[in-house]
Design goal:
This protein is 68% helix and 3% strand. The chain is mostly helical and 128 residues long. It starts with 5 loop residues before the first strand and ends in a 5-residue tail after the last helix. Strand 1 and strand 2 form a beta hairpin. A two-stranded antiparallel sheet has the order 1-2. The radius of gyration is 18 Å and the shape is elongated.
Length: 128
């Protein structure tokens, strides 16, 4: 068994993405944002260099959970990164929700209603 963080009694959606592809996409998006902000004079060259260096200092990143944590920290110091962080957080939440719904469907199909209810409770934080 892979040692991984578990959610809803199944492996977390953090395992469902290729972190290297995700990092490549985020690096490109960040570079595009920096160029756009420079063109629109929303950021100084020195600040852009510091932002790029700060992002590179976060590497290596091993999984989506670590990526979210580090992007959140970076976004607290660089407002330019908030858009990327919120987009990544939204994607992670959507993947986790889809995984939980799949687990609930599978549990119901197998007649394991109790497990489906537990998944639903974990998904909603125990709210009724």
């Amino acid at each position: 068994m892979i040692a991984a963080e578990k959610h809803y009694g199944v492996y977390s959606s953090y395992l469902m993405i290729d972190i290297n592809l995700e990092l490549d996409r985020i690096e490109k998006e960040l570079a595009d944002l920096i160029v756009l902000y420079l063109q629109e004079n929303k950021i100084e060259v020195g600040q852009a260099q510091k932002l790029a260096a700060a992002f590179l200092a976060l590497l290596p990143i091993t999984d989506q959970k670590e990526l979210l944590t580090k992007l959140k920290q970076l976004s607290e110091n660089y407002v330019e990164v908030r858009e990327l962080y919120l987009k990544e957080l939204s994607q992670a939440n959507e993947l986790e929700k889809e995984e939980a719904l799949t687990q609930m469907r599978n549990a119901i199909a197998q007649g394991n209603i109790e497990h489906a209810v537990n998944v639903a409770k974990a998904m909603t934080g125990g709210r009724k």
